[in-house]
Amino acid sequence: MAPRRPSKIPDHIEMIMYPVPETRQDSSADNETSASKLADTVSDTLFKKDSLDRKLERHHITGIAFSGAVGIGFFEISSEIIALGGPVGAIIAYIFAGLVILSVLRCIAEMVSVRPVKGPLMDFPHTFVDEALGFAVGIMYWLANCMSCVTLTISAAMFTQYWPSDFSMPLAVFMLLLAIFFMNACGVQLYGNMEWVFKWMKILLLVALCIVMIAIKAGAGSGRDRRVDSKFEISPGYSPTGFFAKAGTSSVDRDQVAILGTGGRILAVWTCTTLAMFQFMGGEIVLVTAGEAKRPRRDLPTAARYMYLLPVGFYLVAILLVGLNVNYLDPRIYHSHISWYPESEPRLDGIATVLRSPFVIAIKNAGIKFLPGFLDACFIISAMTAANSALYVSSRTLFVLAQRSKHDLIVRTLGRTNNGHTPLAAIFVSFLPGLLAFLAVKSQNATFQEPIHVFGRLYTGSVLCIYGSECIAFLRFKKGLAFYHRIMDRDGKMYKLNYYRAHWQPLWAYLGLLLSSLLMIFSGWAAIYDLVARSDGVNRRDAIVDLVAAYLGPALFFCIYLLYKWRYKTQFRGLVDMRDVWFPANVPDEDDEGTGTNNSLKGGKGRFREFLSWIR
Ligand SMILES: NC(=[NH2+])NCCC[C@H](N)C(=O)O
């Protein structure tokens, strides 16, 4: 398909950038026999229907991405973060995690505005760094989303156990998986509309939680239960005390703080940041819609630029407010490194339950009765819709991977769509790992934590590798542009007019690369500490599982990369090979005029209007 010509490009440059298809054939094409050309034509005709439908409007795209980014982590795991780092440590951790997302999204937003192709997340490393890196990113992104689908499904199923009923865990997992499969299988437009509704439900939930937290701080409720606070021997204040060791006693005292002082605090905040990453991940999902977006060149860069603002903004405000309302030494706020419980409290370790949420703890302390049950229902929906997005992402990633595959059988099975342009085979295969959610079912109504934890860590570790790869791809992309600056000047007017040009680059790329690498490398340090420094009193098996979960994703990523590189002898892309930047394949037909990606030229008002139109 001939790429669409953006408006406002001078004619002589247009000829270079968007040559007619014939001129794009390279010399090897001359040698093609007419037989193979005929085969191509036949296969083109046969597989014409195997493409995705371009039906997603901007609000669908942001719905899918928002719904995928805001799952259950913030509502539930935030308690672990507050427990470890105190309210202040939690905010610092959220700022760091937000910074990683901000940096990465700035890089991919610019690349996608120049190259709005199908499967952009794997295309960028493939085109600008190394084919093997693109492959590793594709496979690991697929796997990571399958794993996050498992984690989110288990969480949703465990939340159903809050109400006393006959709704057993196996039944809950089964019904959730069924719902997720059918929502994905019923066509992209319906799916997009559903996710748009879920996005608004989640926004309302976040706003409501903030309002309730402000009200409680102002004295709402039938009175704060101060009895819990009085049990603690350390007065918590707001900042972290230090890094806690594992302990199983019934009260907390200073001996249980393994590393005191500034070092301990820094380590506590670092561990919080690793945990917070799970909550912030998912903003990049906007790019996965590239194959189904109606106007990818216009909508994707804008959505990628603004995508992080809503979740990050809400998360920061809400964590600040909830931190003011809970005592971070409250035994009901759980983290595996702080596991003491007064005998009177039910042990909640490992159980995803509304009772672990810091918001619910604050609400219960304030004596508001009916809200926990209502919030539980909201959390089930939130987790389920994020699992829904995870299946959407994994199926589309697998579909694009299959279409790019060198093996005909894979192209003709997983790379196909049904008559409604839904990649059913890819959806089904990506759904299968979801059955691992049944692992969480120990017995009727009993639950255990390990699968949630392991799959969640696997997802985080893998996505951190992908974020690092996107930053490297951006650095190469920028170098490539500098190399070909006579054809396309990143600082020139034409570029600024037609594409999104992120300010302060390559600073964001370096920052994203540095933070994601550090987070990946040191994500398992607490487990190593448990194993090495405090061998007594620590459950070694737990620590080993923790360690494996932290590093399995990155290890798999590097293995896949090296294996592909070794098998296909791929080379790093030289700058000269980056002609692809200006000859993007598969740029879709867009049904509106112009690219409209660059709002910075529209001035403050234009940008604000753009932002509002995106929020819808
Ligand atoms: N669609 C996904 N893969 N979502 C996984 C991201 C998890 C999400 N950030 C959460 O806090 O629950």
Description of the molecule:
By secondary structure, the protein is mainly alpha-helical. The protein has one domain (72-615): Amino acid/polyamine transporter I. Helices cover 62% and strands 2% of the residues. The chain contains 25 helices and 4 strands. The strands form 2 sheets. Strands 1-2 form a two-stranded antiparallel ribbon. Strands 3-4 form a two-stranded antiparallel sheet. α6 (78-114) runs antiparallel to α14 (296-307), α8 (131-159) packs across α9 and α8 packs antiparallel against α24. The longest helix has 37 residues, at 78-114. It is globular and about 70 Å long. The two termini are 32 Å apart.
From the structure above, extract its key features.
Amino acid/polyamine transporter I; transport; binds arginine; 616 residues; amino acid transmembrane transporter activity; two-stranded antiparallel sheet; disordered N terminus; transmembrane; 25 helices; mainly alpha; transmembrane helix; two-stranded antiparallel ribbon
